[in-house]
Amino acid sequence: MKPLKYALFGLIAAMAVQAPAFAQPAPNFNNAPPNAIRVLATAAIKPPIDAVMADAQKAIGKPIVIIYGSARGNMRTAILNDVDFDVALLVPDVDVQLLAAGKIKPRPREVARAPIAIAIRGDKPADLNLKTTAGIRRALINAKGVKYAPTGAALFTVRKILDTLRLRPLINDLSTMPGTVVLNPGEYEINIFPHSEIIPNKALQDQGLVIPALQVPADVTASISTKTRDPAGAQALVDFWLGPTIDPTLAPVGMVKGRRGR
To answer: In the β-sheet with 188-194, what is the strand arrangement from edge to edge?
Structure first.
């Protein structure tokens, strides 16, 4: 198989999108080439990883097959249930569980940080203020619904918002509701997701990052399976992501480089 075909295969595989928590498929690599590096990844880092896919495959000399999903949902569950994989791009609290279960090697490396943002779907109120805790509280209470992934990368920020502002009994939580809520004129929905997921979503109006007082950025870490069939290839891929090639792809989707040494 020629390098061009590697790139095409990897790009097609990487087109998977994060499924809602209520309909998360169990990932498998049944159709992956036998020499492929198999990656399970949070959807929060999809745009930059896709952007450097061809370069990554050229650098390691192997095809890469990536399945995207929910870091704390179907990705975590699949690994705990012994799915075969080589590299995971998840979040630190999941890494702790996977390390304890003997599923990944020690010292996951931080590839990038994904700040959490707020977006509006529907008619944005003229007096919307998301720059203060009082404004955020009012906006979530008045929204027709609040949407987030209950097992996604933004979860810690969502919890901080809801608990700090005492909002849980006061909002219409859409996190486990299938489908799309119908919005009438004058109505809006609040979405809380990593900025990297909001920016490319044309159905949403990006309102910028959650304020620092309520912000818990998602650190996206790379770890290697204890059962990888290709330790050298897996390590080469992690090293590539830690290198400079990915850097220019991060800022356009609201991400920053992982902290050195982490």
So the answer is: 145-147, 188-194, 116-122, 205-209
pLDDT tens profile 200-240? 999 999 999 999 999 999 999 999 999 999 999 999 999 99
**E strands along the chain, which residues?**
37-42, 64-69, 87-90, 109-114, 116-122, 145-147, 188-194, 205-209, 218-224, 256-257
Take residue 119 and report the two structure tokens written for it: 């977006």
Q: Tell me how far apart the alpha carbons of residues 253 and 115 are, in angstroms, rounded to a whole number.
A: 10
pLDDT tens-digit profile of 5-64? 333 334 334 333 333 444 566 788 988 999 999 999 999 999 999 999 999 999 999 999
Contacts of 51 (CB under 8 A, 6+ apart): 246, 249
The Cα 142–Cα 137 span in angstroms is 9
Length of the chain: 262
List of domains in the chain: 3-113+218-257 (3.40.190.10), 116-214 (3.40.190)
Distances in Å between the alpha carbon of 64 and those of 43, 55, 100, 108? 16, 11, 27, 19
pLDDT digits (tens, 9 = 90+) for 103-114: 999 999 999 999
Q: How far is CA 238 from CA 51, 55, 89, 108, 152, in A?
A: 16, 13, 9, 10, 22
Q: Rounded to whole angstroms, what are the CA distances from 183 to 11, 120, 143?
A: 35, 12, 10
What's the rounded mean pLDDT across residues 142-149? 97
Give yes or no for a contact between 111 and 119, defined as CB atoms under 8 angstroms apart. Answer: no
Where do we find the tokens 């003229």?
Answer: 126
Distance CA 21, CA 44 (A): 14
